[in-house]
Amino acid sequence: MDDVFTLYYLTDLHIGNALCDEKLLKEDVACIADDPKAIWIGGGDYADFINRADRRHRESSLAAWLYGKDDIAQEQIKYLENLLSPILDKCLGLCRGNHEDDILSKSERDVYSAIVNMVARPNRPVRLGYGGWVVLLWEDGKKTRWHTTIFCHHGSGGGILPGGDALTLGRLPTWYDFDIAILGHRHTKHWLPNTITGPTFTASKLQQREQAMLFGGTYLGGIDLEGTDLESYAEARLLPPRSVGGIKIQFMPAQKTFKIVI
Length: 262
Prior knowledge:
Distance between the termini: 24 Å
Number of helices: 6
Strand content: 25-35%
Oligomer: single chain
Helix content: 10-25%
CATH class: Alpha Beta
Largest sheet: 11 strands, mixed
Radius of gyration: 19 Å
Number of strands: 11
Shape: globular
CATH architecture: 4-Layer Sandwich
């Protein structure tokens, strides 16, 4: 119980977009695969899933490995499965993102179910839908010493100023019960702490519980840093540049605490 366990939140990967940082994503996948105490949760938008019939489509936005392919969505699913193959057995849950939802609405293509089916194992459901809870039980022998409740949702909305992100995170404790809440969608890494104080069953004693609310980041670059003249959705909408990469949470069960790593 003195070990440190690391949870990776992999959200907004946007596989198949030319600006997806596949190198960084593969490095994080390798870290999860190599660490026997690493686990992960998926936050949605696993691939871009913007087919040629979609008004958002731009041929120049496709990753080079999609050139000449007819079934773009299927190729992205295959690529995603190959990339995640070393860590499929370490997944605790998968949220549905708006890109999975959009292609279902526009093309009647249920890519989210295909991704769930590639990860799920007998007696280990991972389908969280738009949002759901993952509960981690930390046991010493047969005794549960600590439990951590994680609320996951792909998220919605957006904005330019960091205050908007903070307001969204700050509302979460009034809506849901959790130790940690993680959102995606906004392609930002941002977190807020919160402390709850209340009485225990012993009337003369109070206890405190720490909460953390986070945005989980993205692997999609909003700005072309390589000088290849690629123009992203973020640039077109004058959205602020974001650093790529995800967030990690380190759990120390012996101390009954956790640490956010951004």
